[in-house]
Amino acid sequence: LPLLFPPAGVMLVPERKTEDGFEEHFGLNYLGHFLLTNLLLDTLKQSGTHSHNARIITVSSATHYVGKLHLNDLQSRCSYSPHGAYAQSKLALVLFTYQLQHLLTANGSHVTANVVDPGVVNTDLYKHISWVVKVAKWMTAWLFFKTPEEGASTSIYAAVSPEMEGAGGCYLYNEERTKSADITYDEELQRRLWTESCKMVGISDESSRVP
């Protein structure tokens, strides 16, 4: 049973909030997937077996490398930047995936969690960029941008490849395991983000029971 996130997302939108009052990048790109994953975890755990793990695949991006996590201002209320808010949401997805895998391993669950960088893909996510950048994108898309089908290849690889059976906590790009930003391996930061995310979406923090 593969579970692939995100089914929805935004990029570089002007400052605005979701219906639940969250900054839109953080709410849609990260918190929604954090909550949905947790709501489905029991089903995923029941679906996985020793020889056939259930798989959770989260889609981040290379933008996470320049992201900064502001734990005291996750909603970017003090200083809003579309680029900063987007990068933070993508960084949060990587930290979340690593902490999720830690919890799954600690509980002996037959579920794996990995995070994917699809590359630069020609999609409607770019509709909020400036007209100058849009023109440049239109002129160079054939050379530098992946098609949606090409962009989906690494996610599909993570979801169904026999090579990924039982492998979790990986950052994948072009169907290969690679290193994510140094800060994503900070276990204390992973735990703190997880705890704060639980508070924001109103669920219990299971990580507090795991050493």
From TrEMBL:
It comes from Nyctibius grandis (Great potoo). SUPFAM superfamilies: NAD(P)-binding Rossmann-fold domains. Coiled coil: none annotated. This is DHRSX reductase. Keywords: Oxidoreductase. InterPro entries: NAD(P)-bd_dom_sf, Sc_DH/Rdtase_CS, SDR_fam. GO terms for molecular function: oxidoreductase activity. Pfam families: adh_short (PF00106). Belongs to the short-chain dehydrogenases/reductases (SDR) family.
